Protein: Protein-serine/threonine kinase
Organism: Sus scrofa
Amino acid sequence: MRWVRALLKNASLAGAPKYIEHFSKFSPSPLSMKQFLDFGSSNACEKTSFTFLRQELPVRLANIMKEINLLPDRVLSTPSVQLVQSWYVQSLLDIMEFLALIFDGSTNPAHPKHIGSIDPNCNVSEVVKDAYDMAKLLCDKYYMASPDLEIQEINASNAKQPIHMVYVPSHLYHMLFELFKNAMRATVESHESSLTLPSIKVMVALGEEDLSIKMSDRGGGVPLRKIERLFSYMYSTAPTPQLGTGGTPLAGFGYGLPISRLYAKYFQGDLQLFSMEGFGTDAVIYLKALSTDSVERLPVYNKSAWRHYQTIQEAGDWCVPSTEPKNTSTYRVS
């Protein structure tokens, strides 16, 4: 029986490239937050949702799998990437074999008003406080101290009402948690000789188009030349933590900010850093205020994606200053 199962599994895996090649020819269909709510509401047609997902999920998986295959060979040969690839393949095969439509009408008992992972009435300040509290626990554990939090809300449409939005709370929490960790570490380390720590200030502003969250710290800031590098994977200003030592590290892995910006951009938002070296840093999360504008930003496999992974290096439009400028007086025109 075990031999038969292995044979069937190998046969299904052999069909994966055919599915990938076929479905990667189609472009994914991005949904807005409003469409997610419509699909997940109690009045929605479950069969319509199922039909859409059955066609859409293979397209999304195939497109990203096609792009993963363009990564350099040395990256593709790593065990972690191979494991992720196997997950994608298995997910695609599971979807292709999923023929029965089963709905039990159940809801999330912890969050009965949520539609899937989306909160139609997400209280932004509450998520800010939750992320701060968790980051504070880590900071207190490592430094035995942590800065306080000051929150200010500016609701341009109704100053007396708290700010709510349609969003995925877990996405927002992740972004804020990473920003709080960075702000707390910088604040504590730059004021280690002080008796008091300056507070971290968060401003939540709701306008007609954007909902913006600005987090300001007095952590000393970073030089301008390092700002973009902070969004590079595996780059961190903190020492790399030792694995297996137990506990959750405060910083050092180098993927917190890049992934946070991906979360922000997924629904047409953004995450930007503005730093003043010697003073502090402002981190701003930009989100769409309207659910109709919060449309998914999805990767598409095409020729542009293929060219992106080629190793051809083109000459830049600007000269790059050398770390050791040449003494031009030693060069003579022959």
